[in-house]
Q: What sequence folds into this?
């Protein structure tokens, strides 16, 4: 169970990273260590979420060995039901909070990952790497052809777009977390779940891989794009969609191929994908090693781990709390770290108390209950 506790710790860090982006000061209002915290949270927290989502899929489908037969069919049914529920919940939340909600995108990721749940770690890793190399260029080409009239025509017949700001086109190509360039994160998480992360030799090899991916991707982007390009991507904050996508209310926009050399948050380039996967791997492996080998730290981190066990509740809850407190959602404009610290503390206190009496968080319990019909699959 130690390695799963490490995954829960990584989930909590992803949640808190989202809090930093949505509640903490913007990057332009920070300096020193605070700037590094803010920069690492931009993009990387949501990527860590997506990578852990792929990991969670394999917990349902059979982690080290895929479930087969009746158990396999029921596991796929549970995943499909979860996907539909998350898509519905994400759409409902997008009606209030806009396209920054990632849950609807999760629903699409889960559905597309279903055919892959029985693949081996090596095959999944190769698939993720191939998509990381190909899909950013494909997204750039498609976005180059996607004029505003075409978007409007597609959206006019899209029922999801009619009820929220996130339609099918957003989910697949132009949204904050477009499926076309975000599936590599999910599949990388699936590959990671197939490995025995409790083995020291596996931990060392995977950590070395994560470090190599991070250094190679960001280093190569820095070499090709230059400091100014990388700095501007960081300071501008996350963009909407992948390479060449149309920014909100942009009017007209001519995508430039040079964007494919950058590695900024949410840029959706090959360098961004590979580098962000490397960071996610390092966080997951680091959390796993820490929880396995540092029992005192594990005890001290119990409230943080509790947040990780109910990450869906913590994620949705911080939006609801922002609404109750009349705080703006999305990219934060706060100048103080105090609201962020209060949200983090509040999540830890709630999760610690709730977990003493219940096995799952409130929304996790509802999601689990929704998948019970899968037991009747034969």
A:
């Amino acid at each position: 169970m130690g390695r799963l506790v490490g995954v829960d710790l990584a989930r909590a860090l992803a949640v808190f990273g989202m809090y930093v982006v949505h509640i903490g000061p913007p990057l332009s209002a920070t300096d020193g260590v605070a700037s590094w915290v803010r920069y690492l949270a931009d993009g990387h927290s949501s990527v860590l979420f997506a990578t852990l989502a792929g990991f969670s899929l394999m917990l349902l489908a059979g982690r080290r060995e895929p479930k087969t037969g009746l158990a396999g069919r029921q596991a796929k049914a549970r995943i499909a039901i979860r996907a539909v529920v998350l898509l519905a919940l994400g759409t409902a939340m997008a009606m209030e909070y806009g396209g920054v909600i990632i849950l609807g995108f999760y629903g699409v990721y889960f559905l597309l990952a279903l055919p892959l749940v029985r693949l081996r770690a090596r095959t999944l890793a190769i698939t993720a790497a191939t998509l990381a190399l190909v899909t950013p260029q494909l997204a750039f080409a498609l976005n180059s052809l996607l004029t505003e009239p075409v978007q409007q025509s597609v959206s006019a017949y899209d029922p999801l777009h009619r009820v929220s700001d996130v339609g099918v086109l957003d989910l697949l190509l132009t949204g904050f977390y477009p499926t076309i360039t975000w599936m590599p994160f999910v599949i990388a998480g699936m590959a990671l779940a197939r490995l025995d992360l409790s083995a020291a030799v596996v931990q060392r090899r995977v950590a070395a891989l994560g470090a190599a991916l991070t250094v190679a991707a960001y280093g190569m982007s820095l070499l090709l794009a230059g400091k100014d390009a990388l700095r501007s991507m960081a300071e501008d904050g996350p963009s909407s969609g992948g390479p060449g996508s149309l920014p909100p209310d942009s009017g007209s926009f001519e995508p430039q191929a040079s964007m494919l050399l950058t590695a900024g948050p949410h840029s959706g380039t090959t360098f961004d994908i590979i580098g962000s996967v490397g960071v996610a791997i390092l966080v997951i492996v680091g959390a796993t090693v820490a929880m396995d080998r540092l029992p005192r730290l594990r005890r001290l981190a119990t409230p943080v781990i509790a947040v990780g066990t109910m990450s869906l509740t913590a994620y949705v809850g911080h939006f609801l709390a922002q609404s109750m407190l009349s705080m703006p959602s999305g990219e934060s404009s706060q100048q103080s770290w105090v609201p962020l610290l209060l949200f983090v503390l509040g999540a830890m206190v709630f999760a610690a108390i709730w977990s003493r009496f219940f096995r799952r968080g409130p929304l996790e319990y509802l999601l689990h209950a929704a998948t019970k019909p899968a037991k009747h699959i034969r």
In short: The first helix runs from residue 2 to 23. The mean pLDDT is 87.
